[in-house]
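F.,

This is the one I mentioned.
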């Protein structure tokens, strides 16, 4: 198959970025031969697969991800697939036939669980929310990545001069590591910077955060005002630019062109299997140079408690706890909660985009909450280093009293009265202390009253429809549930499901509301009718009845809408729709 012009060779407004930084003479590497001018069709596909074979060995499984694929007038899409090292040519064919114009094509740095192939078996498919490979699905660490990029505004390609700055830094890093006795690694042009790959043999969990400390040590030694070592690429499921694919940040201009990533140098060995492995002793020696955290990033012991006005809990006890999901939803921040806590037991709220740079997308930025309520926040990218909970809170929007559980009342202005002792949950990673209970400074009038979370259910004096409407409003206000066509639903990956099934509703209300049932006499209990569906749209029962307003005992449906009289023809709906698939 002939290669696509925009995916296999430079456009008029783009060029190859294949000028390699000068390698130190002690590095036992050799240049990777560029494709010949006559490389077309099958020859070019084979050439791409040969490059990838240096990174992905036979039997290993990798995720390939295409981000920001143009989709006409609709939001850009992401595609992903899983490929084995034995079938890299299939990957080349899939990319040649697949979606065009992606901003970047990436591959997981380390091998994934083999079973993940079943998600998209040697093909590219639209990615599902939450379907990306996570750290728990990596079987081992095979590569340590040193990623050097020039400093520039977000969302644009690098100039030649900016890229030269990154070239100087990566050359210095490689020379230093060679001098420490590290075996030779791979060198790649990432399009806007450079990647150095070093073979390692570590467990996926990276006990002692060895890779992270190595990268911090290199960054401390080699960062310049013009180019930096990315400290954020230490996680096991990190994805990296796939050689022979395009880096398209922003528009391609003569000064800032789109470029194609490519492999530049490989170790001077007979085959990829012979690449030397960096020993743990060499890694530990370099990691020991990692600078200790500064006072500004240390956790202060005993800080971070939340005290409601007038309360005085003992150290470590919280009178109120920030409901992170409610706060993020209320401020319009997209997020999802990880299925399981992290290694330190913290709930992890992964943000759809970093508040400081929208290009730092899921899963790179997150807010974390410890079991005791303490809060942390971080973005994995170097440009966001040093920004913790306090900075995230300021960028997203200061939590208000209604965002706490139980809600905090209005707080006197700091100008007239000092804040009570304690403060909101502090950052257990980045910054000490809190900043007092939330206030509503900057708003006209009195602070907003906390959102009601208690509902009185009294079938004797209050219509059930009013209680249901209150409960629906409470759940909808969480941002986790939505009204759709008059019905309360929850969105889950790939599905929209009604909330009002008895078990699901009980769980949702237990987490977000307090229900009080009133009876005429304390020794009597009048059970509420079982409600299988609450809707404001006219609905037919399975026996073809058009249900009247109120509760229908036979079906459990509660129709909260005006009476609708049957019209001529409604008795023939079954016959009319008999041939439809539903």
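My design for it:
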């Amino acid at each position: 198959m002939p290669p696509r012009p925009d995916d296999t060779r430079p456009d008029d407004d783009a060029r190859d970025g294949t000028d390699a930084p000068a390698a130190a003479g002690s590095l036992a590497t050799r240049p990777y031969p560029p494709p010949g001018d006559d490389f077309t069709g099958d020859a070019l596909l084979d050439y791409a697969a040969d490059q990838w074979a240096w990174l992905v060995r036979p039997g290993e499984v990798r995720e390939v991800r295409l981000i920001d694929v143009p989709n006409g007038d609709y939001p850009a899409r992401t595609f992903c697939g899983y490929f084995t090292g034995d079938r890299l040519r299939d990957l080349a064919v899939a990319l040649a036939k697949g979606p065009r114009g992606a901003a970047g094509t990436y591959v997981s740095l380390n091998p994934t669980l083999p079973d993940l192939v079943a998600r998209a078996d040697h093909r590219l498919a639209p990615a599902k929310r939450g379907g990306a490979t996570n750290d728990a699905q990596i079987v081992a660490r095979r590569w340590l990545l040193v990623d050097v990029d020039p400093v520039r505004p977000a969302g644009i390609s690098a100039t030649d001069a900016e890229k030269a700055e990154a070239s100087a830094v990566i050359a210095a890093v490689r020379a230093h590591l060679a001098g420490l006795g590290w075996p030779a690694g791979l060198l790649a042009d990432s399009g806007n910077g450079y990647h150095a790959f070093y073979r390692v043999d570590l467990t996926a969990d990276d006990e002692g955060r060895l890779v992270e400390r190595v990268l911090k040590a290199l960054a401390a030694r080699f960062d310049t005002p013009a180019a930096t070592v990315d400290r954020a690429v230490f996680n096991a499921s990190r994805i990296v630019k796939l050689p022979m694919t395009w880096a398209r940040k922003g528009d391609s201009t003569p000064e800032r062109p789109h470029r194609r990533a490519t492999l530049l140098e490989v170790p001077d060995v007979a085959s990829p299997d012979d690449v030397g492995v960096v020993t743990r002793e060499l890694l530990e020696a370099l990691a020991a140079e990692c600078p200790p955290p500064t006072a500004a990033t240390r956790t202060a012991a005993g800080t971070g408690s939340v005290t409601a006005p007038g309360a005085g809990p003992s150290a470590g006890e919280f009178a109120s706890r920030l409901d992170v999901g409610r706060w993020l939803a209320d401020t319009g921040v997209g997020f999802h909660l990880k299925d399981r806590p992290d290694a330190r037991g913290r709930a992890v709220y992964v943000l759809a985009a970093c508040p400081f740079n929208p290009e730092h997308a899921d899963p790179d930025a997150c807010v974390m909450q410890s079991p005791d309520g303490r809060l942390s926040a971080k973005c994995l990218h170097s440009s966001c280093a040093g920004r913790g909970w306090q900075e995230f809170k300021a960028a997203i929007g200061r939590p208000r009293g209604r965002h706490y559980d139980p809600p905090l009342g209005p707080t006197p202005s700091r100008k007239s009265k000092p804040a009570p002792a304690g403060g909101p949950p502090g950052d257990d990673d980045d910054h000490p202390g809190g900043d007092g209970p939330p206030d509503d400074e900057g708003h006209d009038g009195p602070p907003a009253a906390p959102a009601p979370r208690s509902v009185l259910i009294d079938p004797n004096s209050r219509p059930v429809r009013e209680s249901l409407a209150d409960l629906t409003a409470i759940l909808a206000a969480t941002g986790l549930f939505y009204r759709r066509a008059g019905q309360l639903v929850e969105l889950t990956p790939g599905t929209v499901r009604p909330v009002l099934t008895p078990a699901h509703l009980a769980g949702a209300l237990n987490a977000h509301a307090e229900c009080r049932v009133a009876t005429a006499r304390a020794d009597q209990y009048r059970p509420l009718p079982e409600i299988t569906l609450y809707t404001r749209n006219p609905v037919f029962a399975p026996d073809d009845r058009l249900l009247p307003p109120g509760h229908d005992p036979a079906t459990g449906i509660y129709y909260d809408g005006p009476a609708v009289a049957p019209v001529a023809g409604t008795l023939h709906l079954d016959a009319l729709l008999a041939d439809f698939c539903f």
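DSSP finds eleven helices and 27 strands in the chain.

Talk soon.
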